[in-house]
Amino acid sequence: MEAPQHEERRTQVRGAKFRALVLDATIARIAEAGIDHVRFADVADKAGVHEASLYRRWKTVPRLLIDALLTRTQAEVPIPDTGSVRRDLKMFTTDLARFAQTPIGTALIRFTVASDNAPDIESSRREFWMQRLSAAEEIIERGKKRGEVDPGADARLVVLTLGGLIHLHVTHLGTGIPTTLPGQAVALILPGITPS
Amino acid sequence: MEAPQHEERRTQVRGAKFRALVLDATIARIAEAGIDHVRFADVADKAGVHEASLYRRWKTVPRLLIDALLTRTQAEVPIPDTGSVRRDLKMFTTDLARFAQTPIGTALIRFTVASDNAPDIESSRREFWMQRLSAAEEIIERGKKRGEVDPGADARLVVLTLGGLIHLHVTHLGTGIPTTLPGQAVALILPGITPS
DNA sequence: TCTCCATCGCAAAAAAACTTGCGATATGAG
DNA sequence: CTCATATCGCAAGTTTTTTTGCGATGGAGA
């Protein structure tokens, strides 16, 4: 029932190829078992690699997870630019919702929340999200230039509000995010940032 | 360096008293070491109780945590009723922010997000939050009756939005929540639910 | 008060997680 | 192409976590 899920390999693999192999196996393991059930032993088996090598290279499971998630999650949520703040925000929220509901997206959200004392992991997570949030703030900034948005509006607050909503839905409601939610959320917030 | 932190007890304790002792020790342990560093061994020592008893009664650490957090966290965030939706929402958000920043509040938020496959835990967590959120929706409903809020406004959406914002702040920004945030957040949302 | 029994402490043992020494081999530098 | 070296597989060992059998006891009910 737990047959090795890798093809037999005669030669030893190491370096970049080794890393890629392990990272892919990690992502696959996250997707199939959930981020809380990823163990070095499983990943090693799936990657056709030895467990001890994982201990040596990544030292701890959280380190492996953050490495895999961050390097395998580039630009999953694009920043739209349609010329309309409403459309942009709705698209952004919709894309975010879709990604948040994939196994990897859920894992990323859950993992980002899980506290961990290792400072390097903590900073990696923070940098990751700050980067994403700052990118999304661009939607608001463009709206300001077009006169669609009140210049005094807090771009970060808007992004955090929408992001937090999706976040809560995924983590607490568990059930799927209604397709109408992004539109409703944007409609709720938009009047608060339109020029008076 | 790790001296037993409990008073010596000659007699054996069990039943409700045993449970209370362990739950208190668990809360104390969460507060002092963070929810990720709570182990049966520590809690048992602090409670002056045997580790194996914890394994038998709660089986896993997450079960103990959810039990302790839920039974020791009653009505930490009151639902205000000042006659003004703006004031009510602001007070609610402020109280939520304050609680969210206590060690127990943070633990509760973080833990609620952490995935766990045990179905009973999952449902406990969901029920807990749904109960809190539903209570907060009352603020909006009262506003509708007073004509302050558009009857078509989605009370749950409002609550989820504010809650999600605080949630995100605690989990991602790590740093303290600015005292101005609750007011800003309410100001952002209010125009979206006022009668047109 | 007395008895019964579920619950607890204790200790031993099983399982899981993590570490380490050593020989082998990719891989990159010269 | 050849060599030096860091990285990997392997297996044995160590530590931490979880389980279990058994005797003891507190507490509920007769």
From TrEMBL, chains A, B:
Matches recorded under InterPro entries: Homeodomain-like_sf, HTH-type_TetR-like_transc_reg, HTH_TetR, Tet_transcr_reg_TetR-rel_C_sf, TetR_C
Signal peptide: none
Keyword field contains Transcription regulation: yes
Positions of the DNA-binding region: 39-58
Residue stretches making up the HTH tetR-type domain: 16-76
Transmembrane feature ranges: none
Keywords for the protein's UniProt record, in alphabetical order: DNA-binding, Transcription, Transcription regulation
Record protein name field: Putative transcriptional regulator
